[in-house]
Amino acid sequence: MQTRIVTLLLFVLVSFVPTSSTAQTKIPKPEEVLGFTPGDDRKLASWSQVIDYFEQLDRASDRVIFQTLGQTSMNQPFVMATISAPANLARLDELRKIQDQLADPRTLGPLATRDRKAAELIRQGKTIVLITCGIHSTEVGSYLSSTLIAHRLASSTDADVQKILDNTIVLLVPSLNPDGVDIVKNWYEKTLGTPFEGTDPPELYHKYTGHDNNRDWYAFTQVETQLTVDKIHNVWHPQIVHDIHQQGAFGSRLFLPPYMPPVEPNVPKPIVQAYTELGSWMASEMRAKGFQGITTNSTYDAWTPARAYSHYHAGARMLSETASARIASPVTLKFDQLRSREGYDPQKESPKFGPVWRGGEWHLSDITKYMTTAAFLLVDHAAQNRELWLRRFYAVGKEAVRPRRPGELYGFLIEPSANTEALLNILRRGGVEVEPTKQGTLLVRMDQPYAAFAKTLLEVQRYPNLRDAAGHPIAPYDVTAHTLPLLMGVTVHPVKAPFRPSRTAGTAGEIVKTAELPAPQTDLSAIYRSSVPSHDEGWTRWILDSRNLRYGVLTDKELRAGVTIFKPSPGVTWKYYTILFPDQPARTLLEGYRADAMPPEYTGGLGPEGVRHLRDFVETGGTLVFLNRASNFAIEQFKLPLRNVVAGLPRTDFYVPGSILRIELDTSHPIASGMPKETIAWAEDSPVFEVTNDPNVRVIASYPADKHPLLSGWLFGGDLIKGKAALVEVKMGKGRIILFGFRPQYRAQSLATYPLFFNALSSK
């Protein structure tokens, strides 16, 4: 009898133990929905399969809320899973409000009481962790790992997972580029079992920007970026953003922060401290677990805001880069094949690298194992140090909103112009407050939460002159300049405190439609699309599509064939008068893919036949426009009477890795008509033209002979290009060739030189 009573009491006690799984049905495993375990060799999931898995998780688990935030560039669902303890999910609105208040301490009332109120909010709040996967679609490990991460969080009864659920809210984006999931999967499966298995697809895996889609985190041009910023970052203000990537196969197995120098000077010091501490701890823990080939403080810098929205919004961006395989196919690497990246040698243990990985087979399952382990270490740290993360978050906001001291930067005055609204839209989307003044200017004050974001975009960059032991420039990971007023042709004035602005009533308003430039006639223009995908070609299409301008697309195959529309005869109307060649290396344009690199239908480039037909097109009255490196192709293949004076120069003599330079215009030429005498050029691996004394060549833009060309970024050897040409027109037969020695439509940001670009397409 006594035994039966004890058994009954135990049953009652167990029945009433509160768990987060009481409302859950059986949690589906990824392999039960996808048909394979994420990480299996040669297996990829489609985007619809990923959606299906997360929808089933949402139905089965009370820890998961799955939602569609909008539609992608190609009209696929853009989605997010919110994962936390059921008690937290029941009070999401309250927790979002806590984040809003800590992000902007001005909402907490008088200065004297803010810290006390913040302390109470910190006691109640949760660490918000945003995990983003799959922005680069050939890096397939991360979107597959998202299902593994979600499953463990949704199903595990382990104490460490329960602590994560109780103390954090995990916002999981399975892919920042859903369109690319299927583009890569379809190509991979098409080439399985062929010599081309594991190659990248011969098209951009984001409709417009390809690999450049993670360079859009301050210009906000792409719909996927806008959805992420508008509906995740600006709603939740995450303390940590874990950005999961893959890198090349021949270096470290995993990179984690801290980042190598330089760090952009407007990144708050507590954020630098945060990613340094967290990344170093994660690396230490993974080494203790037996993971090899881990590097920190190497390879990747924290300079450009184009990759790091969260750094200017009180969040630590935790980039991880795991070594790749051949898409989903394994690779075998010998130890002596491993190659150094900036800051470490993978064949030698050092403070920045170790323990050494000796080579061998590397599978997709290795990638997902590294990724999921790192992700759970990150959220574990976020849970165990919840109050630390929230206190640091509040401290960043508190410093941002304090009154400016005498002599400190008070703010920026922005003058109205044709492109001012485009600049203001970027600032507003980034959470920046803009006030109109009675003088007609617009004021961006520095005593506001996201002033650091505004400052880094509005001021001129002076990239440090970093050299290695041999004196060679240390290349930035991306580019060195991001001064939007220069790129957009907007005048901005910094002002120091004390400053007494004369304000008008109201605010500068919400994001509005930017006034369009006069629409050029592009119906008779075509863009060349190489078989080798070009980001610049994609950006160009986006610019034209966003303005609803019609254009054609011409391929290698069509140009080699000499389509009859290029050879007008009596009674035949040309289809295109202008053909545009986006930025691409000359050799790529001419030769395309090697014969052993791709199926034959994608190889060959323009070849001699394409060059001959293009020459015929120009000589019978057509216009060819070449952008940046593509200009070298025109000089070489058409034997033009000019040369690229920086071709072949070592970096110790000349180097311009993505900078804003000064150019002077001949405004009497139709292409420069209506432009100011001086404007900018976005220079990045750009040619510089020396023109012979030939009556068929006219210089439209040149670098000043009496001023240093650099406006923002980094330029070494600037004296070599003084007085040299940056934009020329060459007459050939009845037609002409226009050579840009820069990118006039750079990443859809350089509005200042859009008129040159559009005029080149439309003028005759």
Could you describe the 3D structure shown?
- By secondary structure, the chain is of the alpha/beta class.
- The chain has three domains: 30-245 and 265-276 and 363-399, Aminopeptidase; 403-496, no CATH class; 525-762, Class I glutamine amidotransferase (GATase) domain (Rossmann fold).
- It is built from 22 helices and 29 strands.
- Strands 18, 19, 20, 21, 23, 24, 26, 27, 28 and 29 form a ten-stranded mixed beta sheet that branches. A nine-stranded mixed beta sheet has the order 1-2-4-3-5-10-6-8-12, with helices on both faces.
- Helix 8 packs across helix 12 and helix 11 packs across helix 12 (364-384).
- The relative contact order is 0.08.
Strand proportion, as a percent range, falls in 15-25%
Q: Biggest sheet, open or closed, and with what strands and sense? A: 10 strands, mixed
Q: How many helical elements? A: 22
CATH topology of the largest domain: Aminopeptidase
